[in-house]
Amino acid sequence: AAKSLGRGNFQFFSAEMNTATHERLMLENRLWQALEQEEFELYLQPQIELATQRIIGAEALLRWHHPELGMVGPDRFIPIAEESGLIIPLGDWVLQRAISLLDSWRAPGLAHLRLAVNLSARQCHGPGLLPHLDRQLHSHGIDPALLELEITESAAMQDPERSRTLLNELRSRGIKVAIDDFGTGYSSLSYLKLFEIDRIKIDRGFVKDIESDPNDAVIVAATIALAHSLGLEVIAEGVETQAQRDFLRAKQCDEAQGYLFARPMPVAQFEAMVKAATAPVAAV
Ligand code: C2E
Ligand code: MG
Ligand code: MG
Ligand code: MG
């Protein structure tokens, strides 16, 4: 009986693995085509200045319109793109798209907007990032300070020396640098000592339980104070309730982003939202 159970288990697991491997292979094969066929789109999620409630910019979040599967989120394909190397051309596409958006925002009511773009580990440590950025910035002639690049602690800590050089190169161009998912790695404090940055993004995991978990409340408040005393700005991710927003505002958190304000949305919708929010009252 034990033997047949073992065999049954083996078959069960191998069928499961086949499904996972199959999906992975299917997505990987399609990903390369997807880039050529322009199935990717940048969604934008507004970032809010807490003191004024104004939209000061957005984070660009990648979406894939798969012809059969519908909308596929980045958590499902970024790791595959990263492993297969597609992340390099895909990351270049994201940057190019983001910079041309900033270019198109030189219009009344939009010219102040900052745009944040996520960088993956492989993109940070590859040789092509800076030349690509330089070409794009030069051909569009935008103010580099309107572009912010988000790097996670874990990506930066894969090769701290290289990351340090990269971040200095970015900042010497006037590009802003933010640490994404701050607090989720094991190196958050050494990170602050090692790297020159502009902003930290407090991870959603700490914001989520601000109201119910006194430890999280203390950690968030202390992180904001620490960042400010080091001259850094702070944005909180994943803000979903008014109580979370009020807590963050009381602790002087500079900015926030989350479903309370808006979900990630198509570019046109974001632009309409910004224009509506800044339209003169007399026009109503
Ligand atoms: P991230 O950079 O930490 O982005 C924040 C994620 O939290 C986004 O998920 C966003 O939709 C989600 N989010 C925002 N507000 C809330 C909220 O109030 N509640 C909840 N539950 N979630 C919220 P998304 O768009 O699925 O992206 C997931 C991750 O994929 C990103 O995490 C980022 O690491 C990666 N990613 C997205 N776009 C790109 C890209 O262009 N390049 C690279 N390398 N990575 C990307
Ligand atoms: Mg991010
Ligand atoms: Mg994040
Ligand atoms: Mg995250």
TrEMBL record:
Locations listed in the record: Cell membrane
Domain of life: Bacteria
Domain EAL: start-end pairs: 24-278
This protein's name: EAL domain-containing protein
Organism: Duganella guangzhouensis
Lineage: Bacteria, Pseudomonadati, Pseudomonadota, Betaproteobacteria, Burkholderiales
Parent-protein start and end of this portion: 805 to 1088 of 1088
